[in-house]
Design a protein that fits this description.
heterodimer; A: about 425 residues; alpha/beta; Peroxisomal Thiolase, Chain A, domain 1; eleven-stranded mixed sheet; two-stranded antiparallel sheet; 14 helices; about 20% strand; B: about 80 residues; mainly alpha; Non-ribosomal Peptide Synthetase Peptidyl Carrier Protein, Chain A; 5 helices; about 60% helix; about 0% strand
């Protein structure tokens, strides 16, 4: 991927709508401070369900910036995506005037774990409550995994390659890798990432079957990976979109190269087989480093998957040791998602956004709510740690068995 | 049966398709296409569905293929007239 004759894929814009901030700046401020915003679930219709703690996006008002035509025909997960894409494009200084001239040179890739559950529930209630004539036609597209990709491309008039990755939570990283591949094949810009909205009654009920889901009631104790009190993960909504752009295109228009998407690999080891994820994750890390032309010792920080299930946490710690050798126990590891929850496919994209920001600021954000680490890891807890960061490794695993690793390189180090 | 007014159509365009247009605008320029106004095919289908539910009568299949508010009102109102 880093061969000199190839088109390198750079991150030139970041857009975030997360539980701890509905802009990239507020997200980073809260993340580097180690603020935890996990709280009791307050979404309507969810209060009585056994899931008590989650990372909700509060104070998000899409009507201010997104045309009502797009809002009525889309679910909350797409509202997040439209807003995050706007933020990312603005951050990359790619306005309508910049993209309208060459619409085929810009595409969209998203990953989605569950589609539009809230919209779907409303229409299904119409179906069974009143009859099929009362189901709105937009149900046909709003629930769909591909909705966010489609609506971003329609709204911004992008006609380049568009796709959706449906490969479990780790699909968030796979979408970024897919974007980098499209850039290397010749597309100038891909808007890539993931947003999710799993906090609606129907969606929550679907998640109750996951044995990995935390039903803890204390927001400060419900999601504590890598500790001996780990009791599962807390879900979250929101996510991030990134502008992945050919380095040449960015340089030509004088845009900042924030980081390079340098390597990626994905493996599959079976649903809830966390013992096997050790090997799967180690393989993914090794191959991603190979693709990036990166030695294990060059990894300066790891953004962990951090599922919060003891067996899975152990597998992840061992995978790092397997793939990085002795460096695996020395490299700083962090999991800022313990402060906002785990947003399925969106989680590793938020981690990627945080990794780029961490490299820029020379600061490793901490792992909120976690203190007593019971694995052989240098987990950054308490407060952010100052460090020179040139290479970041982002890890993600899905409940259905996918494992992915993404290597990012800071532009200044190149 | 009562006829569909521009007021009713404007309200339905808002509800079913998220398009804000004044009754006066529909009155003054009834030949401006739904596409120009921002109502796509699924939006128009939603408007037809709302009308069918409100009036308790099916609309002709061509209703969802109308290109302009004028065509739509003519077709829908002649259907309602015939059913009255």
């Amino acid at each position: 991927m880093s061969a000199p004759h190839e088109r390198r894929a750079a991150v030139t814009g970041i857009g975030v709508v997360a539980p701890n901030g509905t802009s990239t700046d507020t997200f980073w401020k809260a993340t580097q401070e180690g603020l935890s915003v996990l709280d009791r679930v307050t979404r309507e219709g969810c209060e009585h369900l056994p899931l008590k703690v989650a990372g909700e996006v509060r104070g998000f008002e899409p009507a201010g910036t997104i045309d009502e035509r797009f809002l009525v025909q889309t679910d909350r997960f797409t509202h997040f995506a439209l807003a995050a894409a706007d933020f990312a494009l603005e951050d990359a200084r790619l306005g309508q005037a910049d993209t309208s001239g060459e619409p085929y040179s810009i595409g969209v890739v998203t990953a989605a774990g569950s589609g539009g559950g809230e919209f779907g529930q409303r229409e299904l209630q119409q179906l069974w409550g009143k009859g099929s004539r009362f189901v709105g036609p937009y149900q046909s597209i709003a629930w769909f995994y591909a909705a966010s990709t489609g609506q971003i491309s329609i709204r911004r008039k992008f006609k380049g390659p568009c796709s959706v990755v449906a490969s479990d939570e780790a699909g968030g990283l796979d979408a970024l890798a897919h974007a980098a591949r499209a850039v290397r094949r010749g597309t100038d810009v891909i808007v890539a990432g993931s947003t999710e909205a799993p906090l609606a009654p129907y969606s929550v009920v679907c998640q109750l079957g996951y044995e990995e889901l935390s039903t803890g009631t204390d927001p400060s104790r419900a999601y504590r990976p890598f500790t001996d009190t780990a009791c599962g993960f807390v879900p979250a909504e929101g996510g991030a979109m990134l502008v992945v752009e050919a380095e040449t295109s960015a340089r030509e228009r004088g845009a900042d190269v924030r980081a390079y998407v340098a390597g990626h690999a994905a493996t599959f080891t079976g649903a809830s087989r966390w013992d096997r994820s050790r090997e799967g994750l180690a393989q993914a890390i090794g191959q991603a480093l190979d693709e990036a032309g990166c030695a294990p010792e060059e990894v300066d920080v790891v953004f962990a998957d951090a599922l919060g299930v003891p067996e899975a946490d152990r597998a992840e710690a061992l995978a790092l040791a397997d793939a990085l050798g002795a460096h695996g126990t020395r490299v700083p590891v962090t999991a800022p998602k313990t402060g906002i929850g785990r947003g399925y496919c969106a989680a590793p994209v938020l981690d990627t956004a945080a990794a780029v920001l961490a490299m820029e600021h020379g600061l490793i954000p901490p792992t909120p709510n976690v203190a007593d680490v019971c694995h052989d890891l240098d987990l950054v807890t308490g407060r952010a740690r100052v460090a020179e960061l040139r290479t970041a490794l982002v890890l993600s695993r899905g409940l259905m068995g996918s494992n992915s690793a993404l290597v990012l390189r800071h532009s200044a180090g190149q | 049966m009562p006829q569909i007014t521009v007021e009713e159509l404007a309200a339905l365009m808002k509800k079913a398709a998220g398009v804000t247009v004044s009754p006066q605008q529909l009155q003054d320029t009834p030949d401006t296409g739904f596409d120009v106004l921002g109502v796509d095919s699924l939006g128009l289908l939603g408007i037809v569905g709302e009308l069918e539910n409100t009036h308790g009568t099916p609309m002709p299949v061509d209703a969802e293929r109308c290109k302009t508010p004028q065509q739509f009102l003519n077709l829908v109102n002649s259907t309602l007239m015939a059913g009255a």
